[in-house]
From TrEMBL:
Residues 45-111, 138-236 form the Homing endonuclease LAGLIDADG domain. PANTHER family: INTRON-ENCODED DNA ENDONUCLEASE AI5 BETA (PTHR36181:SF3), INTRON-ENCODED ENDONUCLEASE AI3-RELATED (PTHR36181). One of its GO terms (molecular function) is endonuclease activity. It comes from Pseudomuriella schumacherensis (Green alga). The gene is cox1. Keywords: Endonuclease, Hydrolase, Mitochondrion, Nuclease. This is Hypothetical LAGLIDADG homing endonuclease.
Length: 299
């Protein structure tokens, strides 16, 4: 890594959130350390591996960090790998003290322990960083696992016969504390449980609270192709606020935007990147979020 290379604060915060949020099974902090006969001390290697369908964002990460390689796998995924010893040390510095999820912090501590063993170093693992809305971490987390959902539900209460429902969702396994914290920061939403994927899901559906998401992402912008889905979703939100969803022309435009987002999401979810489980109407049991005793709700 070039010592003169400068990484912006916002990008680094986004990168940490993106790496923490990514639940693709192939994306991990890898370490392999052992002792071989005839060798003095431990030997092995450490890697950061991020696997995505979208190659452009991995190339952007490689260019911004000035380290690692990006290659296309036989399965059609793009794979970003950092393994050079000096780059691993730089990554430890970037991530240390900035991780938010407890499970990632635990994984990182093992990674640093193995690095210390390999290099005879004594790097101390700093405590986790608290979740907040004043940095770009959440933007990266949303890019990894966020969902912007548009639903059309039949309802005789509306002159068009259809109710437009918008939701913002964030899925993550073993991270109930972090998702619950979002209900406090945004003063709304609830945390439910998906039995099928055994994960918790933060759900925000009140329009007054959805505006908080828009305000946050205006300051800390999404960097992946999910921003396209988000901008269509935001357009529908604006149409609802301006009552345009109550006209047949407005409703038809919303249907088109919903269809475009659905195709975009399916293109990415079928390739291994979890973006959204709410692709069907609200009567479908697929990916349904249920409120449980552990769920927290703020209204």
């Amino acid at each position: 890594m070039n010592s003169k290379h400068v990484i912006s604060k916002d990008f680094l915060e986004w990168f940490v959130g993106f790496v923490e949020g990514d639940q693709t099974p192939r994306s991990l902090l890898h370490s392999h350390v052992n002792t071989l006969p005839g060798k003095k001390g431990p030997c092995g290697n450490l890697q950061l591996v991020v696997v995505q369908k979208e190659g452009r964002i991995l190339q952007h990460i490689r260019h911004s960090l000035n380290m690692g390689t990006v290659r296309l796998t036989r399965e059609g995924y793009w794979r970003y790998v950092v393994s050079k010893r000096t780059h691993i040390e730089a990554l430890i510095t970037m991530l240390n003290g900035k991780l938010v999820l407890e499970k990632r912090h635990t994984q990182f501590a093992i990674w640093v322990r193995d690095y210390n063993e390999l290099t005879q170093s004594s790097i101390a693992v700093l405590p986790r960083s608290p979740l907040c809305l004043t940095n770009a971490w959440l933007s990266g987390f949303i890019d990894a696992e966020g969902c912007f959902n548009i639903s059309l539900v039949k309802s005789p209460r509306y002159q068009t016969g259809v109710r437009v429902r918008l939701r913002f969702l964030l899925d993550q396994k073993d991270s109930l504390d972090t998702l619950t914290c979002l209900t406090l920061l945004w003063k709304g939403g609830f945390v439910g449980y998906r039995a099928k994927s055994e994960s918790h899901c933060f759900v925000l559906d009140a329009f007054v609270h959805l505006n908080c998401v828009v305000s946050y992402l205006k300051r800390y912008k999404l960097l992946t192709e999910k921003r396209i889905v988000y901008h269509r979703w935001k357009k529908v939100l604006l149409m609802v606020q301006e009552k345009k969803h109550l006209t047949l022309d407005g409703l038809e435009l919303i249907r088109k935007l919903k269809a475009l987002n659905r195709r975009k999401e399916k293109d990415q979810t079928t390739c291994g990147l979890t973006m959204c489980h709410f692709l069907e109407d609200t009567n479908s049991h697929k990916g349904r979020v249920s409120r449980t005793k552990t769920a927290t709700s703020v209204r």
